[in-house]
Amino acid sequence: MAGTARARAGWRYRVNVTARAVAGTIGAYAVAALFAAAMARLLPMPRVEAIMPATLLAFLVGPAVTLWAFLARGPWRAWAGVVLLAALFAAIGWAAGAPT
Amino acid sequence: MSALREGARQVMAWLHGWTGLLLGWVLFVMCLAGTLSVFKPEIGQWMRPETRATADPADAVQAATDWLATNTRGSTGWYLTAPSARTNTVEAAYDSDGSFVYRALDPVRGAPAPRETLGGEFFYRLHFELELPYPWGRLLASIAAMAMLVALITGIIAHRRIFKDYFTFRPAKGQRSWLDGHNALGVLATPFHLMITFTGLVTLASLNMPWAISATYGKDLAAVYHDLAPGVAERARANVPVPLAPIAPMLREAQRRLGGTIGRVYVINPGDRAAVVTIFRSDADQIGFTPAEISFDGATGRPLRAWRENRGAIQTYNVVYGLHMARFASIATRWLYFLGGAMLTLAIATGLVLWIVKRRERAPLSLGNRVLERLNAGVLPGVPLGCAAYLLANRLLPLGLTGRAELEVSTALWAAAAAVAMGAALPPRWSWPLLTGATALACALAALIGLSISVMSVVLLAVAAALALLAAKQLRPPKRAPERRRRAA
């Protein structure tokens, strides 16, 4: 992003920025949402209490993923991180199952 | 911070600039309205100078429900806030004949205050609903708050010297001065900015982060509400008309059981056999929101269920929520909230100006940036102008006008819209001083008309003086750096 003027104008730069921007917004939100869902199911508390720390912490996970999306070395790594985290939290939430 | 790669710092600065630019104007409106909302009850008092009577909260709520019982038709609920040390009226939101209204009710007569106005409620709603229909306003506010959190974190990381910036201001040096000002405003109250942004996001969590709830409750929202506030009784409407039992004894009973003072009073299905009166303890004496509640059978006045919150996780959430609402705050803390909010508002405004100044000093502005420059010149002085016009309309519009409260709001919105149009039409060197001057004039007139001397009038006059000085300063031609401009071109 701190490239020369010529690099900035090029399509490679634009695709790079767009890919990271999508990963840092929609991707970051998806990771935060999956984190909230997984934590709410995982935490050993009554469900009405578990939703509180799960939701509060999700608001910190979101911006962290946004920063990762822009700091990672290359857009592929940025996306790989987002997809890995999303898959991890989805798996945890699925394994924990809905409380009965 | 110095260990951070220089490239990474530049990435953070880039991200800070773009998140700030994309949602800067929305955030400016939210922060200004939120800052004013700190004094929501006091603004309401100032806007209703004719309503001065005071009454015991229980008697005031009794008067309010008596008036509502005879003057509403087919209500599904009355949502009341009892008078407190900060306001003498009963705030009432209710539906009648299918339309939802908000009124401040006289504590003795129970009827709406003669100067019909939303009062501070306008700024409060604007803060998170942005005058847009549900849920779009709240969604936009949520997105803006998320961008704000990213802008704050990236702004902090992009920074080289946090401590030095407390003491750095180099005036009349163009871009340098704007950057120094932006940094000082952001850095001085950084913990407050982070707290208020995070807690603000949390207040809208049921809308913007509902996934913990859906993962554990599915679609059963009634169960969530029941578990969150077990003292609230829910009953389906019986469609058998039965008058509401006297409410003052219920309020006194609630106060005996819950301690503290009465906060909110909800009357669901009023005038029906299945009516429920739920009384919430006031949160004015503690940070946590909704500390305890009790429900009564509205037809008989018998208590149905009560709850005192003692679950750690829920209390944590209530404290985070309460920190944003600041209803616990004493007068000194309230002024600190106001100051912190004002600094955040100004940090956003200077950041938006900085975007243009920085680019103007390097090279002639591109077409896109010229549009942004004019939007800045319309929005940044125009939103305060709208707020001042709202207060002035409160003093000028005759009492007893139909739709008076709504007219005050339209005045605010039209004034702001006219300012944006003027910012687009005129060169910025004219629109800035004209709009800033108009805001100063509106503030001064609002303070002087009516001539009741209060803290609010004094504050308005001080704001008017500061804005008049600013407008005079903006009239002088700006110092340019011609040799740099030529080199860049």
From TrEMBL, chain A:
UniProtKB keywords: Membrane, Transmembrane, Transmembrane helix
InterPro entries: DUF3649
Pfam family of the protein (one): DUF3649
Presence of keyword Transmembrane helix: yes
Keyword Transmembrane helix: yes
Source organism: Sphingomonas leidyi
Name under which the protein is recorded: Putative membrane protein
Residue spans crossing the bilayer: 21-44, 50-71, 78-97
From TrEMBL, chain B:
Keywords, sorted A to Z: Membrane, Transmembrane, Transmembrane helix
Transmembrane parts of this sequence: 20-39, 139-163, 183-207, 335-357, 377-397, 409-426, 438-471
Domain of life: Bacteria
Keyword ATP-binding (UniProt): no
PANTHER family membership: IRON-REGULATED INNER MEMBRANE PROTEIN-RELATED, PEPSY DOMAIN-CONTAINING PROTEIN
The name this protein goes by in its record: Putative iron-regulated membrane protein
Organism: Sphingomonas leidyi
